[in-house]
Amino acid sequence: MHPDSEEWECPRPGWWPPKTAALTSVPSPGLMLVPNVEFTSVLKPVFAREKEPFSLSCLFSEDVLDAEQNIQWRQDGRLLRPSGRRQILYEDRRASLKVSCAYKEDEGLYTVQVPSPLGLQEQSAYVFVRDAAAEKPGAPGSPLNVRCLNVNRDCLILTWTPPSDTRGHPVTSYAIELCQGESGQWVPWHEAPGGTCRCPIQGLLEGQSYRFRVRAVSRAGSSLPSKASELVVMRDHDEDQRKTEISFDLGNKITVNTDDFEDFVTIPSPPTNVHASEIREAYVVLSWEEPRPRGRAPLTYTLEKSVIGSGTWEAIHTDTPVKSPRFALLDLEKGKSYVFKVRAINQYGMSDPSEPSEPIALRGKPATLPPPAQVQAFRDTQTSVALTWEPLKDAPELLGYYIYSREAGSSEWQTVNNKPIRGRKFTVPGLRTGKEYEFCIRSVSEAGVGESSPATEPIRVKQALATPSAPYDFMLLNCGKNDMVIGWKAPKRCGGGKILGYFLDQHDSEELDWHPVNQQPIPTRVCKVSNLREGHFYEFRARAANWAGVGELSAPSSLFECKEWTMPQPGPPYDVQAFEVRATSLMLKWERPLYTGAGPVTGYRISVQEEGSEEWKPVTPDLISGTHLRISDLQPGKSYVFQVQAVNSAGPGQPSMPTDPILLEDKPDAREIKVGVDEEGFIYLAFEAPEAPDSAEFQWSKDYKGPPDPQRVKIEEKANRSKVILKDPGLEDLGTYSIVVTDADEDISASHTLTEE
Fold it and tell me: How far is CA 34 from the centre of its chain?
């Protein structure tokens, strides 16, 4: 197999990539017994560059048995196999796809699939292949999808797809290059006009193999060459139709050529049915049927033309003998009509001329296709926007669509995709959070890239509003004879909006039905449940609500006994959260226990559990007096879990619910508080969070004790930016200023210590 060749399976019927990344489970009946394999990482969009390598990889929870057979990679739904440019690897629960040299044809939605008892588990991510740097500044991007059609003894039709980016200069022509066999030597062969991506290639040698590639040419220069076409062999494809199989002796067969049954022919008969099989702006492909009978001797053809009304016939001169029953006429004059005759020649002589063809004239320049209608942009994620449009109807020549984007206020459009996409929707990833973008779409055909659709309204890149995920980790915070106080953790996904409240259900273990605790949403993550029966066991579940609606129902909590607490030690602290997570440090904050036991809380004990360990270790040797602690000297790249215990004179109480695992990693793009002096001479502290949801609040705190004194500071907020301005700076303004952005799925927080300097 040649390094540029590919092996494909047919795409699944009706398949369409709805997003740039997805994780789904597809039922697959009759699967062999396999371990319960799950993905432990997520495929992310890849932005590769032409002629450079790229790779995709994912991790599994278990080792995949017979990985070579069970792990499948697909591009746009078609099965991928190893090739000279492509490696498919599996080692240590990691599956990888590596491409050594990217072409635009490699762009598309890549999916990795692995079987499990529940069906096929799969993940998908889009790979974009951007244009390589041009050899000459301003030269266009390279064409793609070069294909050989209607291959015959000495001619074929070459087609390609125009580039998405012409870098400001329209394509004036396409330079076609040819490589014979495996020589590796590329030579210029033909130049096609810029208004078409289809061209006849003639004068090829029967029995020889060829590859082709194309360059786009503008006044700024020539593009890099396209990826080479598949290797084609020049031969008489009609010969297969002249072969037949004859059965004999109980299943044996012999293949014979129907020419062997024809009468002996010397001078051939004239060809028949001379007609134009293809008419374009720059050429006409003339086709005809071979003489019948044709005889056994090889045939060539000569052609004659006559301008309508001239009354004269003129021989058409060719550089090489015409061996195929078709020929491309490249030198016809526009505005004139022609008729044609064809003669057949063999070793014995020349036939009489055929009947003249019907009048034939060149067509006008083909028009590009109009853009799709109703292009709309919608919020998707923190870094992507979803586009929809109304696709063109009755446009069989449509190759697909090119999408373009620009930041609002900019005049320069950037290409999104370099390989045309089909369908009616696409998700554009890799955008800058909080920035506004506009989009437009252009239709692509052999006539070129059409006009742009009207630009969409500017859209700010933010998380789309969706219902929140389920609350989790329920805990008993206090208990009386007939009531309980229940706490829980907020959803991991807020849905891009403010959590308006929670709906709590309760279930007595001695009853069948669940009952709602509240009819109106509870604004906090703590709820007192009354009218319970002493000694009974209860479990709870909850849903969170935002402006998009009520979210997922949580799993039931553990069973809690309704029995009044009388122990002398304190109850558990709650709402333990980590903020300002950096490579080696974080800020841990919590709420005081609701049950204090026999005496006041005198301090807190903080414990940590490292990833892979079951041992809890104290963070500090002494008790912590407040409800926050900065924890430093942690190891980057590791995950940690923390819990807090309140201590009084009777000793340590119940531990809090442990935090979720917290990964310590370097965040070079982490938002930090900036300190400066404005034009009026006031000292300020400013924080910007373009990824914050629209409903987010910027909560400032002084020394982690609450909001700064409004008598001493003024707070200004505008478009995801908040600023604390010191009215009359003094020593009492020194200290640590911290900020937390609410309603975000990820930690957005920072602090800054203001000193006399």
Answer: 29
21 close to 56: Cβ distance less than 8 angstroms: no
Neighbours of 479 (CB within 10 A): 22
Residue 631: C-alpha distances to residues 587, 620, 638, 721 (Å): 6, 9, 14, 28
The SS3 of residue 38 is coil
Instruction: Give the closest residue to 328 by CA, choosing from 100, 67, 152, 511.
Output: 152
Over residues 704-732, the pLDDT tens digits come to 999 999 999 999 998 789 999 999 999 99
Among 439, 374, 441, 438, CA closest to 402: 441
Burial of 38 (0-12, 13-18, 19+ CB in 10 A): middle
Q: Is residue 281 within 8 Å of 196, Cβ to Cβ? A: yes
Strand-strand pairing, 501-508 and 360-361? unpaired
3-state helix, strand, coil in the chain (%, to 5): 5, 45, 55
Please check the confidence at residue 28 and state whether its pLDDT lies above 60.
no
Measured CA to CA in angstroms, residue 408 lies from 277, 433, 462, 694 at distances of 48, 13, 15, 19
Residues 435 and 458: their CA atoms lie apart, in Å, by 9
Residue given tokens 């004659």 in the structure block: 304
pLDDT band at 163 (very low <50, low <70, confident <90, very high): very high
Q: How many CB atoms lie within 10 A of CB 54?
A: 18
499 near 546, Cβ under 8 Å? yes
Provide the 10 A C-beta neighbour count for residue 664: 21
- Note if the pTM is more than 0.90: no
Backbone angles phi, psi at 312, to 5 degrees: -125, 155
Report how far residue 15's alpha carbon sits from residue 112's, in angstroms, rounded to the nearest whole number: 15
CA distances from 634 to 4, 583, 666 (A): 49, 8, 12
What span, in angstroms and rounded, lies between the C-alpha atoms of 187 and 469?
61
Alpha carbons 153 and 204: distance in angstroms, whole number: 8
Q: Is 695 exposed, middle or buried (0-12, 13-18, 19+ CB in 10 A)?
A: middle
| 543 burial type by CB count under 10 A (0-12 exposed, 13-18 middle, 19+ buried) | buried
Question: Residue 596: CB partners within 8 Å, gap ≥ 6?
Answer: 570, 571, 646, 648
User: From the CB of residue 458, how many other CB atoms can be counted at a distance below 10 Å?
Assistant: 15
The average confidence (pLDDT) of the chain is 90
Structural tokens at position 386: 């979803």
Question: Residue 598: CB partners within 8 Å, gap ≥ 6?
Answer: 568, 569, 648, 649, 650
pLDDT higher than 80, residue 267: yes
